[in-house]
């Protein structure tokens, strides 16, 4: 556990070109926070490279840096490039074409008037520091705990899953058959691929097939391949997935969906390591590892006569059971952060922040769809949120447990305050421009469509 985690003061970097204002802010915050000062973007970068900074407080309206970008906006850009990104709270005290709204769009954590007192500033700093700590923990997962608490790219704080991963690591170097069980979306496919990548067969193919996604009439030809003329439409020879997996690993997902006829043929492949293509009389040899997965209880399927008992015991030489996400809520911060990074690359944008409100909402949900449902929710937020932070309001309705009435009676969140501040600024600009919304958008330095979005109206 590092010094930050032991509860020592969080370090706040104050960036302002006015020494008097820095001293004033330093005096008002020094009892609660460790303070570092800088007077420009360059000195700010030097400071956070030198010091273990948690939060940056930055004057938005310092002199221009480049391309008409204020020094304050350039600090946000630079802070967002750090790993993990540094949260920046901007301070503004006079009107400018480069409004606080622009700072939020560029990824600022929040903003306050320079006349705000410490009672207003400190809570926002604490929220930003909490987000920073979450992001630190995510990176610690991958930098310090990967070998102790994970397997390949999979890490967890959950004791049950850690035992599964440790077992998977131990058997990865063998060739034994593996049966992975767990609810849909728990990561069975990822675990299967990780076992392959950590095995001596890593240079061979990892061939995956979902037995539930292919019609029963086609699954046999997909697995075993066929010769030309084997059936109507078989115009040329085709290799099956088993043949493609020679020298590598074959992963059969939802193995319980195979028909009894195909189960018999698969059993023969496991026992003899040989097979024939459909319509062929040549026996082919195959050297592959078999990993299977299912979200059903195969023992019950055997008892019901839907799955062969002999095949079941051949498959479950090493059984691995993945716990559902609702039993490993502690993994959600790291999982969410990893999905943010994934989709930031996919959509070619800076990784937005996960707010404290969003994290609370994500951890207060049961996830019937497990990790896959969390991943889909993060991508949805990445697409819909546009202010440098992931907005909890864009979560699917079933993930928002708080009723509208309860929301109306609760204390306003940081997101509520930011949205109200934006709307008030837009309304002020519209009033100054005598009701002309296009002119108001120009005054604020934002697009007309964004102005309507802030107002909650459709563009007319």
- Write down the Rg: 28 Å
Roughly what percent helix? 40-55%
Indicate the mean pLDDT: 84
Query: Count of helices?
Result: 20
Going by CATH, the architecture of the largest domain would be 3-Layer(aba) Sandwich
Task: Give the CATH class of the largest domain.
Answer: Alpha Beta
Approximate shape = elongated
| CATH domain topology of the largest domain | Rossmann fold
**How many discrete domains?**
4
Strand content: 15-25%
Give the structural class. Answer: alpha/beta
Q: Write out the CATH superfamily name of the largest domain.
A: P-loop containing nucleotide triphosphate hydrolases
In total, how many beta strands?
A: 20
Tell me the distance between the termini.
55 Å
* Sheet with the most strands, sense and barrel status: 5 strands, parallel
Order of strands in the sheet with the most strands?
Answer: 2-1-3-6-7
Q: Catalogue the unreliable spans.
A: 1-6, 402-411
Word description of this protein:
- With 460 residues, this protein is an alpha/beta fold.
- It has 4 domains: 4-132, Response regulator (Rossmann fold); 145-158 and 329-401, Helicase, Ruva Protein, domain 3 (Orthogonal Bundle); 176-322, P-loop containing nucleotide triphosphate hydrolases (Rossmann fold, 3-Layer(aba) Sandwich); 402-460, Arc Repressor Mutant, subunit A (Orthogonal Bundle).
- The protein is built from 20 helices and 20 strands.
- Helix 5 crosses helix 14 (332-346), helix 14 packs across helix 16 (370-384) and helix 18 crosses helix 19.
- The longest helix is centred in the N-terminal third of the chain and has 26 residues, at 118-143.
